[in-house]
Specification:
By secondary structure, this protein is of the alpha/beta class. The protein has 11 helices and 12 strands.
Length: about 280
């Protein structure tokens, strides 16, 4: 799988903020107390469990921003399947650089690899269907670009990145329109530019039936519907718009939900509460 790289400026802000948070106002006082003049270190990133790798560029920057002359050599690529013992990358730099940057590098690499790994598991689980796995805007503050990149590294796809990417009419927005889905859709279409997509969240088949009468939405977010209801909703949409299932989707029930014929499975927990992958950094 070819994974287009994330532009460098999108990594830099995240890494710089993390380093500033960790270094405080005096830097790594532990290393300062023990450091010998000119002391160099070589350290190796190794996988400690099976998963999918993501975040190498962020790990590299954790050292490069501290010392532009540090050496970071990746031995694998983001998106690669990894197993315990695999050497992921090596870093050569002054001891103060390696020890000051290691926690930022490991935090990000482990977190993003955790996202890529669980995304890959769900993608594999529904591979026999046409559905795609998609993340949401439920990302951790400041990490949206890199978390969504990790989803792509795991073979998933991205929902909108920001509020201005597309119009998504959810239940609280419907409240603004008096609960009238047809009014909400027509108002959205009148406001939207010709390249702006419109998606409507529906909780019931009755809402969907009403929305389909005006044929405005490009996609329907079918929220918390059981599989039998999803099948009916997909049949009602009849290919006129994208059918997106959301709510309560787990690795265990994803195949059953995907088998209903929906186009997208959107999972907020891919980014907001995923378990980090166990990766270590060992001084050689």
């Amino acid at each position: 799988m070819f994974l287009p790289p994330l532009p460098l400026p999108l990594w830099e802000g995240v890494i710089r903020t993390a380093l500033l948070e960790d270094l405080g106002t005096a830097g790594d006082v532990t290393t300062q107390a023990l450091l010998q003049p000119g002391q160099k270190l070589k350290a190796t990133f190794r996988a400690r469990e099976h998963g999918v790798l993501a975040g190498l560029e962020g790990a590299r920057l954790a050292f490069a921003l501290l010392d532009p002359h540090s050496s970071f050599i990746p031995h694998m690529q983001d998106g690669a399947a990894i197993k315990p013992g695999d050497v992921l990358a090596t870093v050569n730099a002054g001891a103060e650089t390696v020890l000051a940057g290691e926690r930022t590098a490991l935090n990000l690499l482990s977190h993003l690899s955790g996202i890529a790994s669980i995304t890959s598991q769900v993608v594999t689980a529904i591979a026999a269907t046409k559905a795609r796995v998609c993340c949401t805007r439920k990302t951790l503050p400041g990490l949206r670009a890199v978390q969504k990149y990790a989803v792509r590294a795991g073979g998933g796809s991205n929902h909108r990145f920001r509020l201005d990417d597309a119009i998504l009419i959810k239940d609280n927005h419907l409240a603004l329109a008096g609960g009238d889905v047809v009014h909400a859709l027509r108002a959205a279409r009148a406001h939207a530019g010709h390249l702006v997509s419109i998606e409507l969240e529906v909780d019931t088949l009755e809402q969907l039936e009403a929305a389909l009468t005006c044929n405005v939405a490009d996609a329907y977010l079918l929220d918390n519907m059981p599989p039998e209801t999803l099948r009916t909703a997909v049949s009602m949409i009849g290919g006129r718009a994208i059918a997106e299932a959301s709510g309560g989707i787990t690795p265990a029930n994803a195949p059953e939900i995907a088998d209903t014929g929906v186009d997208i499975l959107s999972l907020g927990w891919l980014t907001h509460s995923v378990k980090a992958l166990d990766i270590g950094l060992d001084i050689d």
